[in-house]
Structures are given as structure tokens and as C-alpha cells.
Amino acid sequence: MSWIKKIAFLIVLTGLMGGVFFGFFFHRREARIQKESWFVMGTICTIQVPGPPELRAVIARALARLEECDRKFSIFIPTSPVACFNRSGQAIDDPEVVALIAKACEVSSLTEGAFDITVYPLLELWGFYGENPRRPRREEIELAQKKVGWRNLVITNGQVTKKNAAVQIDLGAIAKGYALDEARKVLLASGVSNALINVGGDIYALGKRNQQPWKIGIRHPRRAGLLGTWEQTGRAVSTSGDYEQFFIQDGVRYHHIIDPRTGYPATNLVSVTVVGEDATLSDAYATALFVLGPEKGRQLLLEAGSKAKVLMVTSSGRIIPFRWPEGRLRP
Ligand code: AMP
Ligand code: MG
Fold first, then answer.
1. d(CA 204, CA 275)
2. Which of 112, 179, 235, 242 is the most exposed place for a label (fewest CB within 10 A)?
């Protein structure tokens, strides 16, 4: 080989190796996931975004938006508009809080009160806001039920007030979904169109991960592991389950989703998963369907014209799909 050919060969070889290295490096950058978890809304919130480390600042902004939602909706933060309303009856005039309460009342109307954010006195009585939940006496339940009823909330002139001073609200069944939608808006506004946002089990699968849909799993309601997994893009996934907060007394499981009509934890189902376009509604519907049970739940979905896909699990372990795509779940 002449020296000119040798040099040409070396130049080509260096170029090829450089290309391979360059491609590998950028592939690695593409495959990398930026992931951050904060403890917000009494739960672990995690946001994952595929891409370079510079995205961490955007993730932090989305997580900060969750914190802002918590400061508005929490019953445990004494300065939140909701806590002030509960404690002293101070009217709520924060437009965001008023709008979420109005949406919750729409769901109450559709579900004839199965979903009701004024369920607070019952949750307090059952001890779910403290460390030692317990089964109350029937008379105590009947007394607390008198303080429950979404029709006691008055929404006028951009304000929420109450007709009855004893009425208190708990947005726990809808606020996580709302916060999830808000975090998604922060990401989208910053040009992030691929992310997995998890707010304590309520998930939004935004776009894709390395050209593939995000892989989602539903927790098995009775044993460790998953009930199933499937691939998802562009949808919210909300699950309500009787395993999230519960205690067992005299061999009976009592949990945190209360049927306001009976004053006792709802007994129809053990888990409900709703896949929808909007996390606020998916979250509210998962809780509402949990209380309504499979038959009334199906009726609600049809009447409301909802396009949501739903998976319900009964206490005997029966899986009831509603518009759930065939073959996407492997229990
Ligand atoms: P989720 O995990 O979304 O199903 O919400 C459960 C939370 O919703 C509970 O911890 C309570 O704060 C609240 N909640 C319980 N029962 C009801 C109900 N019937 N309607 C509305 N909110 C409820
Ligand atoms: Mg919910």
C-alpha cells in the first residue's frame, strides 16, 4: 500500500470510528431519563422525562406547581383556602379552588351524591385523618351524616360559601388528578412533550419514551405485584383502591372511600382504574365508580357520554372491563 493510500485509509477509519462513537453517545443521551421525586400532597410524586440533564429545571417547575396546588387544596395546610373554609367558614374566592369545587359538584350531581367532597365529617369520624382509625358506633355515623351533602355548598359570584356551618370539604378524590393536569401543562408549555408524571399513583403518560409508548402497570389489589401492564400514550390513568388506607377490625376491612349514603366504606369493589384524556375527571370518576359499583357505574359512564376506559375489580376477584381494549391486560 502506498503511503497516500495508507493515509486515506487512516482518515476513513478515524471517520468511521468517530461516527460510531458519536452515534453511540447521542443514542445514550436520547435513551437517558431525567427523573425526580418530591414528597407533595402527602404522597410521592415522580416525573420522568427522556432527554438531557438540562430538563431537570423544567421537572422542578412542574413539581413546584404540584406544591402550589397542595397549598390551595390541602385540608392539612392551615393556611389553604380549603382549611380556612373548613375551620371558620371563610368564603373561598381563589378562582382555581372555586372551579375545582364546581367540577366536583358536577360529578356529585351526575352520581346522585355517591361522589361528595363534603364527606369530610365521616372521614374524620372514622379516624382516617389521624393515626388510629376505628369503626364508629352507628349513632355517631348518623350524626356525622347530617353534616354531609354537597347541596350545602353555594357557588355564586366566584365564591364558595356554605349553608350549614358544620359542612367541611375534602378534595382528596379529585385534587391529585387536577394537580397532575397542571404539572402536564407546565411541561408542555416548556416544550416537553414526552413525560411520565406520577402523583401518588395517579399517572399521566405524555407522549413516548424512545419512540415507544410508556409502560403502565396496575397494582394488584390483594397481593404484591401487578394486576397487569399495558402500553399507553397521551392518557391519564387513575386508580382508586381499598388497599390505599385501611384497617381491619373484627376481621372486616374498613377503608377510606366512604359511601356518603350509608356512612360506611363502599363495599362494591376493591379497585377501579379509569383511563381518560383528563386526569381531573379520571381521578374523580375512579372514586365515584368505586362507590357506585359496576352496574350503576356502567350506567353513569353511558349517561355522561364518557369515553373513558375502565377496569373494575370486585371483592371476589372478578375483573369487569368497560371499553377496556382486549388483550392489553395480562392479569
Ligand atoms: P381516591 O384515592 O382518588 O379514590 O380518593 C380517596 C379520597 O377521597 C379519600 O381519602 C377521601 O379524602 C376522599 N373521599 C372518600 N370518599 C369519598 C366520596 N364518596 N366522595 C368524594 N371523596 C371521597
Ligand atoms: Mg379519585
1. 9
2. 112
All cell numbers assigned to 277: 384524556
Q: Is 152 helix (H, G, I), strand (E, B) or coil?
A: helix
Query: CA-based angle 259:263:270, to the nearest 5?
Result: 40
* CA 201 remoteness from chain centre: 6
CA 123 to ligand 1 centroid distance, Å: 9
Cell numbers standing for residue 95: 378562582
172 Cβ below 6 A of ligand 1:
yes
* pTM for this model (two decimals): 0.91
Residue written as cell 379509569? Answer: 274
Closest residue by Cα to residue 286 from 241, 229, 330? 241
Strand ranges inside 53-132, DSSP E: none
DSSP secondary structure letter of residue 12: H
pLDDT digits (tens, 9 = 90+) for 278-307: 999 999 999 999 999 999 999 999 988 989
Cα separation, 193 vs 29, in Å, equals 17
Which residue has its alpha carbon closest to ligand 1 atom 6? 173
Q: Can you give the pLDDT at residue 325?
A: 82
Question: Which cell goes with 35?
Answer: 427523573
Mean pLDDT of each 10-residue bin along the chain, 331 residues long: 58 51 47 93 97 97 98 98 98 98 97 98 98 97 98 98 97 98 98 97 96 94 92 97 96 97 97 97 98 95 92 94 76 57
Measured from the CB, is residue 123 less than 6 Å from ligand 1?
yes
Q: How many CB atoms lie within 10 A of CB 100?
A: 26
Distance between CA atoms of residues 73 and 80, nearest Å: 6
Instruction: Decide: helix, strand or coil at residue 164.
Output: coil
Q: Which atom of ligand 1 is nearest to the CA of 290?
A: 4
Chain position carrying cell 369503626 = 135
